[in-house]
Amino acid sequence: MEKFVQIKEKLSNAGLKATHPRMVVFNELMNSKDHPSAEHIHDRIKTDYPSISLGSVYRILDVLVDVKLVQRVSVRSGYKRYDANMEPHGHIYCLKTDAIQDFYDSELYDLINDFFRKKKLKNFKVKEIKLQVVGEKVDPEVDVTII
Amino acid sequence: MEKFVQIKEKLSNAGLKATHPRMVVFNELMNSKDHPSAEHIHDRIKTDYPSISLGSVYRILDVLVDVKLVQRVSVRSGYKRYDANMEPHGHIYCLKTDAIQDFYDSELYDLINDFFRKKKLKNFKVKEIKLQVVGEKVDPEVDVTII
DNA sequence: GTACGTGCAAATTGTTTGCACTATC
DNA sequence: GATAGTGCAAACAATTTGCACGTAC
Fold first, then answer.
1. Which superfamily does B87-138 belong to?
2. Dihedral angle computed from the Cα positions of residues A60, A63, A65 and A69, in that order, rounded to the nearest 10 degrees
3. pTM
4. Is the pLDDT of residue A114 over 70?
């Protein structure tokens, strides 16, 4: 699996065995920008790797989340969705299509971080600040863009 | 059910029949500040109203969300949680205890709203902006406070 | 009285787990 | 070769649904 060299390294660095199923799942998630669920990922990879089981996909996603190579995105939908992008960013969630799109804006992130640097939360250790913009795409086929 | 007069009115105004189960569920949620799940609510009200079924609690919460008397809060947990507070506010989520606490700060909300007034999202109609502060309580027994 | 809501139980959906086997280190 | 990971199927948990009965308007 020559094409998985970087992925292999990431897994090893995280202290995980670089197994074939893990590389395939992680690779698929890194190449997806639509924040798929475990079932989505399973569907997509089983063409190339038919023997992979859904249970393993669930287990693999759990360990990837544990070692912080991947994060979960929580939205209204009744299932968990995943994101291999670990840079600080927000999510745009479309109620109509259930689509989740990444949203970057360092200016806004600075604003929010500055805020939490001034106002402190007592009795709480902040790990992460999640920002979700909920609404509806006008044209469901097209991505949202920022002007 | 004299104590439910205001609730009765809210339901009627929303175009819903003011049934006993609906009033009991809505009342319970309004008196909870811990963002309970359907099962939590069912457990809490069945002392006073033993005949109520869990299925009905689910259905009632769904219609209350539909008419915007109640909102869903999405966090990591594997179940849906509800909030009868419809004022704009954020949520503090504790990874250790699974507790959700409301978080008000008009200054921060102004900041974020100003931001989205300037930078527009193309092809997207924003309905709501959700802010979630994820982390861990130091003392799990005590609420988080803002300084 | 009628249309909508409810209780109950069964069905569905998403996720987790136990166990025998396999592959990585 | 030891240990941790996988496939498979069964178990579980949260939520939804069909249907006969009940209740608000």
1. Ferric-uptake regulator, C-terminal dimerisarion domain (3.30.1490.190)
2. -90
3. 0.92
4. yes
